[in-house]
Amino acid sequence: MQRRLKFWAKEDAAPEIESPRERIYLVSPAGTPNYGDDFIAAAWLRYLADAKPEADVWLDCHEPGRAAVMLDGLHPRLRTTDTLWQLIDQFRSSDWEHTAEGVCRMIRDYGSPRVDLGILLLRGATSLHLLGGGYINDVWPENISLLAAVAEVKALTGARLLATGQGLLPLEGASVGEVASRLREFDYAESRDQPGADLLGVTKGLDDAFLGVAQGELLRRAGGRSAEEWAEARPNELPDVMVLLQGDFRNNADAEHLKDVTESFLKAQLADGAQSIGFVESIPGVDRLVFEMLSDEFRETRYFPASDLWLGGFPAAPGQRWLTSRFHFHMLSAAAGASGVFVNMSPGYYDIKHGSLLELGTGWTELAIGGEEEGPVPAPTANQDFPARAAELGRRKVTVADELYR
What is the mean pLDDT of residues 375-390? Predict the structure, then answer.
């Protein structure tokens, strides 16, 4: 027997949350914090503040409390929730089909006081937009149920479905057919890399962070709150050399190996005339691993916590030299004119991500970690034309946004 919300006045009709406003429902893993995901969410909110200032905008994300603080002021009618992520947690399983079945059943039939009101709100959305990122694939198979969930809403209400800047690989076996089939139900869907577009039959697009580049936010703070006091306390000079080797996704490298790679890179840069060193984090705590192992050896260093990046601006500049494993740090520092070496932490996932940037022309050099092909740490390289290219790509991303929302 179908379970119903106790406050329904009629047993044969679902209640509606009436609103005279357009309701734009964004879905993202924002709020962890993780700089790339949060930068993308901020970019879309900033865009919608201009394109759709009167719309109600809901962001369904991992950590709605933190996201509300970080993204405050970027859209005048922003609210945050975690309904879809709660549903995934409720039915989380190694079998994504089980997760999808449970999530869709709840969206269709309700049945839990924990999330029924959130589902009611979800079912009133005008559009549902999966923001860009690499979170729907076999690395997190339960997240494939997000596609089934929003498709279920569309079947019930006719809401428009959008997916931009998606990193949909790796996918294998039955998940390929599931993702391809679900994406065909979307009004617009794009992969940020060519292999994903080819495998799934969707548009080849660009990573959503290019929307932020187009907004001129690259070297300014991403957050919406005032940062005057923060800026006064922060030195203006950025280090010559920057390092971010993440503490997660270390498939083929132990901590000592990452330490050795970083030490070799830093000593080579100092010998080549670099005067200062900075360490950066994207996910608080997770990305401190190498810094803590080398802080005694390289004492004259600066550490840039995620909060500093959010309030003070992305710490990249022309002429800098970077060593990083994170995709968006490769993208944004190259767009700022820095040279670099990117570390492939996870073949099948990060090689596709970084490879898409090489195809766009960053000019950086790869260092594979572990395996037979690993050699000495290479010198950082760059394509001096990439900052102009990044600006052009940003304008292309704005054109996509305009087609979806103007």
Answer: 94
Q: Give the integer Cα–Cα distance in Å for 151 and 96.
A: 15
pLDDT above 90 (res 339): yes
Mean pLDDT of 348-368: 95
Closest CA to 287 of 261, 311, 258, 319: 258
The C-alpha angle with vertex 333 and arms to 250 and 76, in degrees rounded to 5, equals: 100
Is this structure's pTM higher than 0.90?
yes
Residues 285 and 384 in one domain: yes
Whole-angstrom distance, CA of residue 315 vs CA of residue 239: 9
Residue percentage of the chain with pLDDT more than 90: 79
Specify whether 171 is located in the same domain as 238. Answer: no
**Do 247 and 178 belong to one domain?**
no
Q: Tell me the CATH number at 336.
A: 3.40.50
* Pair 187, 261 in one domain: no
User: What CA–CA distance (Å, rounded) separates 218 from 331?
Assistant: 10
What residues form DSSP beta bridges with 79? 58
Which residues form the domain of 152? 23-205
Does residue 15 lie in a domain region? no
140-186 tens-digit pLDDT: 999 999 999 999 999 999 999 999 999 999 999 999 999 999 999 99
Instruction: Please answer whether residues 233 and 217 qualify as being in contact, where contact means their C-beta atoms are separated by less than 8 angstroms.
Output: no
Q: Which of 317, 308, 331, 313 is nearest to 133 (CA)?
A: 331
